[in-house]
Amino acid sequence: MSSSALTNADVKRADEETTQTPSLHFRRGTKISLLVAAAIICAAASLATLFWNQIWPFTKKAVVQDLQESSDSTVTVRSFHRTYFPSPGCVLEGVEFHHGARQFKLITIDKLTIEGSYSGILTKHIPRIRVEGGHVFIPPFGSNLSFQTQHSSLVIEEIIANGTIVEFASKDPHGEPLRFGLSEAVLRDVRWGSPFTYQLKVQNPEPPGEIATRGKFGAWATGNPGETPISGEYTFERADLSYYEGIAGTLASKGNYGGVLKHIDIRGTTDVPDFEVKSGGHKVQLVTQFTAFVDAIHGDTFLQRVNARFGRTNLIVAGSVAGVKGRARKTAFLNFTSPQGRIEDILGLFVQSPRSPMSGATTLTGQVEIPSGDQPFLKKVRIQGKFGIDAGKFSSSPTQKDVNKLSAGARGEKTEDAETVLTDLKGQVTLQSGVSSFSGLSFGVPGAKARMYGAYNLLNEKIDLHGRLWVDTQISKTETGIKAQLLKAMNPFFKKKRKGEVVPVHIGGTYDHPEFGLDVKP
Question: Less packed terminus of the chain by CB within 10 Å, N or C?
Answer without folding.
Answer: C
